[in-house]
Amino acid sequence: MSQFSELSPQQAWQLMQQRNAVLLDIRNTLHFAAAHPENAFHLTNQTYGEFELAHEDDHPVIVICYHGVSSRGAAMYLIEQGYTEVYSVTGGFEAWQRAGLPIKTVG
Description:
This is Thiosulfate sulfurtransferase GlpE. It catalyses: thiosulfate + [thioredoxin]-dithiol = [thioredoxin]-disulfide + hydrogen sulfide + sulfite + 2 H(+); thiosulfate + hydrogen cyanide = thiocyanate + sulfite + 2 H(+). This protein is of the alpha/beta class. The protein has one domain (5-105): Rhodanese-like domain (Oxidized Rhodanese, domain 1, 3-Layer(aba) Sandwich), CATH 3.40.250. The chain has five helices and seven strands; from the N terminus they run E-H-E-H-E-E-H-E-H-E-H-E. The chain has helices at 9-19, 29-34, 48-54, 70-80, 92-98, and strands at 5-7, 22-25, 35-37, 41-42, 61-64, 86-89, 103-105. Strands 1-6-5-2-4 form a five-stranded parallel beta sheet. Strands 3-7 form a two-stranded antiparallel sheet. The longest helix has 11 residues, at 9-19. It is globular and about 35 Å long.
């Protein structure tokens, strides 16, 4: 895959369940801390190295942001870094919430 693909939130959740795809939430720390998709990894400039060490470049990777726009750029960056199976969630975290998919909240 030399280009990322877009997935609906439901398709992303299914890929996480069936193939153990890693979901990378790229929203800011405040929003991630308040609520994020269950089992999401908070990807930041500071956590990229940790992510890179934990996941082979052929492991399925899904990127989610607020509305599904910024995740496209991050997905393309991961492709450029050698990741071969990268996806972006259409509609972002807002669509994830609307779909009623599992969310972890604080408090």
